From TrEMBL:
This is Cellulose synthase. It is found in: Cell membrane. The lineage of its organism: Eukaryota, Viridiplantae, Streptophyta, Embryophyta, Tracheophyta. Mn(2+) binds at residues 542, 566. The active site is at 400, 773.
Length: 1074
């Protein structure tokens, strides 16, 4: 049901009982909520119910407002007359008869006696009380229930074609209402029927009332089911080799599979064995070489440098363990292929409404100064213009900063969307984000034959330039905040002037009545949401905002699938939603899929990708490997969810296939094997089998009725005190008025709604980490769900990445901090989730995702060892023998071959692979190291860490000017220090070799190789320090010189060039006197 607010902002607080509609137009006044409400009952003061989109009318003479409850009470216990006109209430269909109804003129319409059940919410009344599906049940005698049965309606048997010996053929099932008690049994055919009823064998031990069997609603559902089955079984006629048409009966059960629309919507594409088998062999070989390597290292300590040797061995053991955790989840890499044409054949039949599932799209933003409104507007426009039925897409924008700039920019975006959406769909352009479409350096006339395209494109570009001017004007105005705060157009103060203390706000910009595009077509729904914030409440940052969107969308649209994107990630492929539906709506393999994750692709990154922003190795290698296990991890954006999986429900269990019998073994062998089993176990299996046989459920309603039987109290403890939202979690439609819908929408985004519920613990996005994405996906996999990795040829989403060194390090710092928080929480994959549905190799991947920040300590120490070795003249290994040389060479070869084979089957270039290796060292010794200490302080000492929003936006100055912009941060100190001490170590080592002669050059090469390895990995960081236009900041130079001087003085104290006793004089062996 659409929420019609008349284009006004809804603001309110459930806890404070505040609820108003604010006009943001030229009228300039505030309307109370009752102006949008339905009629109010004049007896009890409750709201009059809505039935079939019309208010309930008790009296047809004067239409005096009376609710259904008061109407029924007046008829049963009261005067049976209208309080206003004193006319006797007539019986309305669906209500029980009372004394005096028989005297009314006219004949009851028995055929449509209970039709109003279709408009009632199935299972929950307006006040949240649990009811059954009883409105369709017939009451009265058995003769009444048989008026339709005698027509010979062919309803499929409800026992899967099995008959029960306990039921005679002249017996039929009793028809009872749901609230009757102890109604199991059968009765003979009612007397006086014109034709005998068709026997419907059913198990007598079943409670027929649970299923509403025999009711009008049941018959309607069965007819609808039969209609859908007939449509599904329609197959195209195929011709044989002789040109004759085949008779449909000759195809048998294989006929449906011959129809293209009945084929699977996707398929797996395993990596070719010629590529994956050598890769696996090299991994095994590398494990063997690692064993020999550690055997040698442990058994051959360095006598003069025992501390260096022990430190290096510990670091190498940790690196090997980390490699195993990262390597083995890539054992079964796969790729996938989708069939969009089959999706259309199955769910979009010509001449019929589309049967594709509804999708709610979530866009989150916090600070419009760091997340430019123009970038956010392009993301919203790409969503509204996606290639998907407009009535099935709803876009929800979460403004967690309650910024009026975001609100005004979204208002401008909704106006521009009325022009942009029809243009993009008319000419089928890609991408459908105008900023990136118009900046493409391609021939836009290519393959465009429409004569009006050039003219309309130029006009649309002018419209977009004007739209950009309006957005930039809003941004310029927002830079200077008035002292009294922002004021809306009608003079009303902006409710979000206090970011940490404001009511919840909702406005529907598009999707309500009367708002169409310039061609008169319907537009997708666009909703602005800003959840309530009050001091003293924990808001849980992005995870809390996403959970608020889950609840609001459930109240307003309740789509079964959700797409979440960051504000800077626009839809680059207009068919991205269809790609996801190929997995989620596949009737054979889609039921256990909790989400479909798309890879992240980025615009505006320098050609060399200096700081590995594209992260190609992770998205093209690691994620493919996880897809072959239980699915990829959730990375925070570009992911389509199944709503039921976010509600914390377990994945549907797959029924075990019946055991197969084998005739290849002699009977005496089977008898011997069977004789070992006890009779007690056999009796238990027989009893269990009979119990399963007796407890078969009607397949058409089994899931619905099981969910309805869940207690109301349990649901409210899990999902919160909102009957409308609780009903939506069970898939039940709502038919309440706009007023109640508004109240519930404000209620579910109130700051105290999640108190004493399972939100953030078992339901929705999981709290406890700034990287809520990893934790949320992990919980789903623990519930037995699997995920899917979808990589269409045209990237589904593209976003903006921080190409500046400091911003990039802060982004990595936030990711690492979230992993540390998960590691120190109860949800750590090392000890959480056993006994669930998480596979072992998938667990390895999650363990690696939370353990990797701890690698920063051995990595930092290991990168310091080359400088220490050069400054002290010692080394971490003794003199290398031939055996040790072979092991070292074999280890380096296997490391290189593993990387080459990964690049081969993953489709990754050597530049991307090397940049990933470099930034692993840069981030490890800086961001990961700081994140480790921040996480320990936060968890153990309670010192909270501020959430840093990464700046987003394109490179407006051109030439990647932001790439060379230097910003001071303490994260730059450790890698800078490592660079300087290793360079100093190289200089000192070479100088020492020059002074000591030829014999010292041999041992020097090992130390030099070690130091140069560190310098090469830190080279992109060194280029970032140098910049392009300015020099290194003074503070960096001071810190680096200070630390380097301290380490140099320590080295001088330990091992100077000159002995403390003065120069060592030796007697020359040559006789110079001769």
């Amino acid at each position: 049901m659409a929420m019609n607010t008349g284009g006004r902002l809804v603001a309110g607080s459930h806890n404070r009982n505040e609820f108003v509609l604010i006009n943001a137009d030229e009228i300039g006044r505030i309307k109370a909520v009752h102006e949008l409400s339905g009629q109010i009952c004049q007896i009890c003061g409750d709201e009059v119910e809505i039935i079939n989109e019309e208010p309930f009318v008790a009296c047809n003479e004067c239409a005096f407002p009376v609710c259904r409850t008061c109407y029924e009470y007046e008829r049963k216990e009261g005067s049976q007359a209208c309080p206003q006109c004193k006319t006797r209430y007539k019986r309305i269909k669906g209500f029980a008869r009372v004394e005096g109804d028989e005297d009314e003129d006219g004949i009851d319409d028995l055929e449509n006696e209970f039709d109003y059940v279709k408009s009632e919410p199935l299972g929950f009344t307006q006040n949240g009380g649990a009811v059954g599906s009883v409105y369709g049940g017939l009451s009265g005698s058995a003769t009444t229930s048989g008026h339709d049965s005698s027509q010979g309606i062919d309803i499929p048997l409800l026992t899967y074609g099995e008959e029960y010996a306990e039921i005679a053929h002249n017996q039929s099932a009793i028809i009872v209402p749901l609230f009757a008690s102890n109604v199991n049994g059968v009765h003979s055919n009612p007397p006086g029927t014109a034709a005998p009823l068709h026997p419907r064998p059913m198990a007598p031990e079943k409670d027929l009332a649970v299923y509403g069997y025999g009711s009008v609603a049941w018959k309607d559902r069965m007819e609808e089911w039969r209609r859908r089955q007939n449509e599904k079984l329609q197959v195209v006629q195929h011709q044989g080799a002789n040109g004759d048409d085949f008779d449909g009966g000759n195809f048998g059960a294989d006929l449906p599979m011959m129809d293209e629309g009945r084929q699977p919507l996707s398929r797996k594409l395993p990596i070719a064995s010629s590529r994956i088998n050598p890769y696996r062999m090299v991994i095994i070989l590398r494990l063997a070489v690692l064993g020999l390597f550690f055997h040698y290292r442990i058994l051959h300590p360095v006598p003069g440098a025992y501390g260096l040797w022990m430190t290096s061995v510990i670091c190498e053991i940790w690196f090997a363990t980390s490699w195993i955790l990262d390597q083995f989840p890539k054992w079964y890499p796969i790729e996938r292929e989708t069939y969009l044409d089959r999706l259309s054949l199955r769910y979009e039949k010509e001449g019929k409404p589309s049967e594709l599932a509804d999708v709610d799209v979530f866009v989150s933003t916090v600070d419009p100064m760091k997340e430019p409104p123009l970038i956010t507007a392009n993301t919203v426009l790409s969503i509204l213009a996606s290639d998907y039925p407009v009535d099935k897409v709803s876009c929800y924008m979460s403004d967690d900063g309650a910024a009026m700039l975001t609100f005004e920019a979204l208002s401008e975006t909704s106006e521009f969307a009325r022009k942009w959406v029809p243009f993009s769909k008319k000419f089928n352009i890609e991408p459908r984000a105008p900023e990136w479409y118009f900046c493409q350096k391609i021939d836009y006339l290519k393959n465009k034959v429409h004569p009006s395209f050039v003219r309309e494109r130029r006009a649309m570009k002018r419209e977009y330039e004007e739209f950009k001017v309006r957005i930039n004007r809003l941004v310029a105005m927002a830079e200077k905040v008035p002292e009294e705060g922002w004021t809306m157009q009608d003079g009303t103060p902006w409710p979000g002037n206090n970011v940490q203390d404001h009511p919840g706000m909702i406005q529907v910009f598009l999707g309500h009545e009367g708002v169409c595009d310039i061609e008169g077509n319907e537009l997708p729904r666009l909703v602005y949401v800003s959840r309530e914030k009050r001091p003293g409440f924990e808001h849980h940052k992005k995870a809390g905002a996403m959970n608020s969107l889950i609840r609001v969308s459930a109240v307003l649209s309740n789509a079964p699938y959700l797409l979440n994107v960051d504000c800077d990630h626009y839809i680059n492929n207009s068919k991205a939603l269809r790609e996801a539906m190929c997995f989620l709506m596949d009737p054979t393999s889609g039921k256990k899929v909790c989400y479909v994750q798309f890879p992240q692709r980025f615009d505006g990154i320098d050609h060399h990708d200096r700081y590995s922003n594209r992260n190609v190795v992770f998205f093209d290698i690691n994620m493919k490997g996880l897809d072959g296990l239980q699915g990829p991890i959730y990375v925070g954006t570009g992911c389509v969810f199944r709503r039921q999986a976010l509600y914390g429900f377990d994945a549907p269990t797959k029924k075990k296939a019946p055991s197969k019998t084998c005739n290849c073994w002699p009977k005496w062998c089977c008898l011997c094997c069977g004789a070992r089993k006890s009779k007690k176990g056999k009796a238990k299996r027989d009893k269990k089998s009979k119990h399963k046989e007796a407890s078969k459920q009607v397949h058409a309603l089994e899931t619905i009725e099981e969910e309805i039987n869940i207690s109301q109290d349990k649901l409210e403890k899990k999902f919160g005190q909102s009957p409308v939202f609780v009903a939506s979690t069970l898939g039940m439609p709502n038919s309440i008025s706009s007023t109640s819908l508004l109240k519930e929408a404000i209620h579910v985004i109130s700051c105290g709604y999640e108190d004493k519920t399972e939100w953030g613990k078992e339901v929705g996005w999981i709290y406890g980490s700034v990287t809520e994405d990893i934790l949320t996906g992990f919980k789903m996999h623990c519930h037995g769900w699997r995920s899917v990795y979808c990589m269409p040829k045209r990237p589904a989403f593209k976003g903006s990445a921080p190409i500046n060194l400091s911003d990039r390090l802060h982004q990595v710092l936030r990711w690492a901090l979230g992993s540390v928080e998960i590691f120190l929480s109860k949800h750590c994959p090392i000890w959480y989730g056993y006994g669930g549905g998480l596979k072992w190799l998938e667990r390895f991947s999650y363990i690696n995702s939370v353990v990797y920040p701890w690698t920063s300590i051995p990595l930092l120490v290991y990168c310091t060892l080359p400088a220490i070795c050069l400054l002290t003249g010692k080394f971490i290994v003794p003199e290398i023998s031939n055996y040790a040389g072979i092991i070292f060479i074999a280890l380096f070869i296997t490391i290189a071959v593993t990387g080459i084979l990964e690049m081969q089957w993953g489709g990754v270039g050597i530049d991307d692979w090397w940049r990933n290796e470099q930034f692993w060292v840069i981030g490890g010794v800086s961001s990961h190291f700081f994140a480790l200490f921040q996480g320990l302080l936060k968890v153990l000492a309670g010192v909270s860490t501020n959430f840093t929003v990464t700046s987003k936006g394109g490179d407006e100055d051109g030439g990647f000017a932001e790439l060379y912009l230097f910003k001071w941060t303490s994260l730059l100190i450790p890698p800078t220090t490592l660079l300087i001490i290793n360079i100093v170590g190289v200089v000192v080592g070479v100088a020492d070799a020059v002074n000591n002669g030829y014999d010292s050059w041999g041992p020097l090469f090992g130390r030099l190789f070690f130091a140069i390895w560190v310098i090469m990995h830190l080279y992109p960081f060194l280029k970032g320090l140098m910049g392009k236009q300015e020099g290194v900041p003074t503070v960096i130079i001071i810190w680096s010189i200070l630390l380097s001087s301290i380490l140099t003085l320590v080295w001088v104290r330990i091992n100077p060039f000159v002995s403390r006793d003065g120069p060592v004089l030796e007697i020359c062996g040559l006789n110079c006197d001769d």
